[in-house]
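# step 3/5: fold
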Amino acid sequence: MDKRTVLFILLVTATFFGLNIFFSHSRDKHQRELVQQKEARATKNNAQLVADIENRTAKLGDLPLVAITKDAEGTKVLGEGVRVNGATLTLAWKTPLPEEIFVKGESQTLLTTETTTQGLALYGSTDFKKLNIASVPEIGSYDLQVVTLPDSGQPEVFFGVYRDGTLFFPASTPKDNAIALYKTSSGYLPLGFYISVGRIFVDLQSMPALVPHLKPAVAPKTTAMTDQKYYVLENAYQQLVFTNVGGALAEINLPLASKEHPQSVVNEIQFDRQIADDYPAEAHFPGHSYYTSGSSEEHAPGEIGGFYPLLRRGTSKGSISPQFYAFNLVSDYPEMAELTYEVKEFTSDKIVFEAVQPHRKITKTYSLTAGDSGAPYSFDLTIKVDGDSRGLFLTSGIPEVEIMSNRSAPQIQYRISRKGKGQVEKLSLPKAKEVINVSSVYPDWIVNSNGYLGVIMDPLSEIGAGYRAQYVSGSVVPTRLSVIDPQYDLYPASKYPGYEVLLPIPTQGGTLNFRFYTGPFEEKTLKAVDKAFSDPATGYNPNYIACRTFYGWFAFISKPFAKILFVVMSSFHTLTHSWGLSIILLTIFLRIFLYPLNAWSIKS
């Protein structure tokens, strides 16, 4: 072995070990940051839990509480009670109770007998007939306001959750007996009686002393079926097209970079131009008649071209099923995906949907606030499930096809934390008619993409374990490319299947917060989003940039060199503002850089 060969081996070995030491140090630093982020996330979750409980606890002024007085003038207050349709439900402040009381100057007489101290008592006016009460199914989770009525001092409100027939308190627990109120479409109505000794909850309909005076509870009115309507929220980065069917997103349209949309990083390609020019019926954005905030007028389908459809949205030959919309709540029962929601609030940056079923009420609040605060292509969703939430999943939608070298490259990824280390895993795509169910992991976030653009679903609240991924035939959710020269069958829909990711909703329901990124996986953009959502005080960082991950058996070798080459190419792009020219310059750079090795090879 000559000196040249020995020198070459030593140089390559030294270079390899030097790179390995450098990236090992970087990896250790990254792991320490991940541990800090995990602790920061736990702290943030606790703070969110406290804030959530506070938001879900009613204020005294919101409840139908009234003062009970001894005379019509109200000179002497005896206690407090809950006023419902001409009657007052209270807790006995003494025994025996007076036969007559006054509420806001109105005389009411005692209707219940054999009342014990701190037991339920009912007073009614002369025209009182029956007491309206609330009723909820035995299965499901429901928010209750549990009110104590002390002999002296102000009533206290405790937030309780009535889940599957059991009442528990996420925060503080009442030390005295209390009346449990449930919010209905008619306001707060009494539901039950809480006994502090033994922590027992008794439904009002199970109390013999009250039964003769109770009006049979009526099941909540189910949201009526209506025609599908579309509602648009829009900012500089995205056009979100919601529908009342599923309270979900039928379209997510990203503006193409232009003078009208200078902030966009999504560039127009030949497919965009061809479809807009030759098949304008497929290039309306939005693709349906729609409503905007502040106007009751329905607008015609939007402008032709100028946007990239992130999601598959069907073609003029047929629409796609609501079960494949983004952020729809679905179950094993197909009708759940087609549940009609009612729009409760619609502003320039927020839309609130609500659906009522006999066994649950679902409220979905979408907010564009995050999208305009330095976090491009991002928005928030808050879901509140009041009732039975078993078997519910949140859908990702199905990304549109992107083709490179005559092939599509869909990907499903998820990030998990193991022993303080964050890892991004790539899921093998489901095969035809296959559904993958994973229940052994708790993803930090999950990605469904076409390789270049996609959807990141980030649950900010604790949800169920695992995820579900399923194959969807391209004939069921056709790509927009299938409309191009159909006589030649250039891009048959069946050749490009879709993939959908679903996150489980916890069985206990409650209020859940999600953050979504729906845009290009461009490095600077993802870094800007990470920076916008980072918390320097706690070290929290969502680390969405990690979805641009290297895979393969030899990733530990290729990744460092790929990073170096990308830095060099990015430097050339900064100088030339052309990726094509940057690739040529990178090739020349590599030839010069590797010239000594090539020269040695030629000589030997």
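# step 4/5: annotate
Helices lie at 3-56, 270-278, 523-533, 555-576, 579-593, 595-603.
# step 5/5: archive (pending)
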